[in-house]
Write the structure tokens for this entry.
Amino acid sequence: MSDKNKSLTTILIAVGLGVYFRFCGGADDKDPAANAPVATQVPAKTGPEPPPSPPPKPKEMTPEEVRCGMRPALGPMDGEVIGSEAFLAKAANDPDSVDVENCFEPVMSQEMCWTTVCDVRQKNAFGAMMLSRVRFYVMHGRVIGAKPERLPR
């Protein structure tokens, strides 16, 4: 390495260290108090530690939740009921084309537990994409049935 490259490298290192210490809280020659050690105080213990708090009690389930399970979760991306696409794909002409989206919040019904209505896009037998509305029935986190609904005109 030539002398010119050595001096350039030394200057770059010195400038880099200067910038580092300036912005990262290194030593500052202008304020000697900033370099003084900081005294930390440890609070004195005033007695025995309190016992740990008991874990929170689980929420009591209603009789409907015991019979039907908790409210089904909606997917974060397109708002589908988890498991609805897999349920419809079993009977679809093209299982990869099934897309369930825009589901309403599930509500408890007396006859079929949780129910929700969703928009479904899938290919028909001729390969054209069709939009339909389907009511899904869910029990204990699993889709147990589906029924076509009429689309509003």
The beta strands are 99-101, 107-109, 113-123, 129-139, 142-149. The first strand starts at residue 99 and ends at 101. The helical segments are 3-23, 63-68, 84-89.
